[in-house]
Amino acid sequence: MIGGLFTFCDRTADIVRWHKLCMDGYNSNMFNKKRLKSRLPVEAIGEPLYFYKTVPSTNDRAQALAQEGAAHGTLVVADEQTAGRGRFQRSWSTPPRSALALSLILRPEDITQVVLARMNMLGALAVVESLGALGLEARIKWPNDVIVSDGKVAGVLTEGSWMGEDLEYTVLGIGLNVSPKSVPDRREVDYPAACVEGGLEGKISRIGLLVDIIERIGSWLHMLDSEQIHSAFEGALAFRGQPVKISGSDMELTGVLQGLTHNCRLRIALAAGEVIILGGEDMQIRPVDMDRDWATLN
Ligand code: BT5
Q1: What are the pLDDT digits (tens) for 274-294?
Q2: Which one-letter DSSP state was computed for residue 296?
Q3: CB of 57 closer than 6 A to ligand 1?
Q4: Which residues of the chain fall below pLDDT 50?
Q5: pTM of the shown model
Q6: How many whole angstroms separate alpha carbon 203 and alpha carbon 184?
Q7: What confidence score (pLDDT) does residue 290 get?
Q8: CA of 86 to the centre of ligand 1 (A)
Q9: Ligand 1 pocket member 101 (CB < 6 A)
Q10: Are 50 and 77 a contacting pair, CB within 8 Å?
């Protein structure tokens, strides 16, 4: 009887230990307001925090909050978006328990045209740096995508509201595919899509990644008009030095991507040697040889 009791106790201890291990693994990926709030604010961003299980679009929610006067640094996060938006009203998918969808309300002082033009790339740069810190090489596909060797992992959507000549606020929205479940079907996207975990081993903590991205945005934010951030943008630019095809609503041309101007337009060298500046409208950029250049990113 006593022997039986010991065996029972040993098994119970094993079960408790196993249960704890499972819960630790589960918790490390648990994505909820309490856990996120305990890690914020960073660099004066993330307070107040609005956390939703499901929301149509974090950018729409952030815009509504900004119009009600929400402060600089307000952060809106959702586990799932049902009407996520890309640029020019394209859609952005964010299925539950698999991705990051966040929008920041920013009210920077001394906003200039250069600072505003760089805001969008700031989001992409922060994601590139965070993925790099995890050991995943990523690049900015101009003007607002983040790509890894398998395809697009993130998109950035920056929106602003003007009061006459003055910028009232900007909303910087980022969507990032984390687990394979977040990757849309190839038929649903105009560019191959990928996710962070696809390029790494093991599970990635969405909260850890989100906090790291915000921290990087916060630390670059004060340097938006610096030469340093311009170099960082160019250093992270995909297809730099490569032949690319650029298409817009009424144009298509091929040239070598040289880099960026100070307000984040493209410098393209044409075959005749002339360098032109492009940007400011809905344009797509592709490596000329998608198969050959894809794996190297640069
Ligand atoms: C973007 O637009 O890439 C910007 C996406 C910004 C999304 C964030 S999520 C948080 C915040 N709240 C929002 O409502 N939006 C922001 P664009 O460059 O226009 O690319 C849109 C295109 O990307 C679509 O037409 C699809 O082809 C493709 N796409 C949609 N969902 C995708 C996903 N999860 N992964 C990769 N590609 C996707």
Answers
A1: 999 998 778 889 988 765 544
A2: T
A3: yes
A4: 1-7, 9, 20-28, 293-298
A5: 0.90
A6: 19
A7: 63
A8: 4
A9: yes
A10: yes
Please give the Cα distance from 10 to 281 (Å, whole number).
68
Q: Whose CA is nearest to atom 35 of ligand 1?
A: 193
Q: What is the largest CA-CA distance in the chain?
A: 93
Q: Token pair of 46, please?
A: 């993330």
Distance, CA of 167 to CA of 113 (rounded, Å): 10
Residue 162, pLDDT score: 82
Q: How far is the CA of 191 from the centre of ligand 1 (A)?
A: 11
Cβ(98) – ligand 1 distance below 6 Å: no
Q: How far is the CA of 175 from the centre of ligand 1 (A)?
A: 7
Alpha-carbon distance values, 207 to 32, 40, 47, 99 (Å): 9, 10, 15, 10
**Ligand 1 center from residue 155 Cα (angstroms):** 5
CA 242 – CA 164 distance, rounded (Å) = 41
Question: What are the distances in angstroms from CA 63 to CA 95, 156, 224, 236?
Answer: 22, 15, 22, 29
Q: How far apart are CA 59 and CA 88, in angstroms?
A: 14
Distance (Å) from CA 100 to ligand 1 centroid? 12
> How confident is the model over 155-190, as pLDDT tens digits?
999 998 887 777 889 999 999 999 999 999 999 998
